[in-house]
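New to this. Look over this protein:
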Amino acid sequence: MLNEFKSFIAKGNVMDMAVGIIIGAAFTAIVSSLVGDLINPIIGLIIGGIDFSNMYFVLSGDVAPGTGIAAARESGAAIFAYGAFIMAVINFLIIAFVVFMLVKMVNRVKDAAIKKEEAAPAAPAGPTQEELLADIRDLLKARA
């Protein structure tokens, strides 16, 4: 069983997956920063500075009007935080679009590399075995 586990770990697919997970985690931080620090402020300007994340309504409990969502949650009131959900959907759509554009760019670069390899002229074909043997036979006949 231990040997089987070692062979499983040594396979290329497992190592590729591990590298993918590590790079994916690092990439998540980059995309989250892109969305949170660059794109969301621009969207906020476009939609008039509306911050959806603090939009909620109280289902039960006492919450003073104008209280932020964090304070409303700390008060123990049951709140329906629809603004946080809207922001999560917007962030998902933005992240999905950014990832789509990056994958599209990587695929374009990969396709260009493949086309370049295909377009490269192949090395000229060398003589066949029969042609080489015929040349050797002719040279031997000429010497005799």
Summary: The beta strands are 57-60, 78-80. The two ends are 69 Å apart (CA to CA). The longest strand covers residues 57-60. Residues 61 and 76 are 7 Å apart (CA to CA).
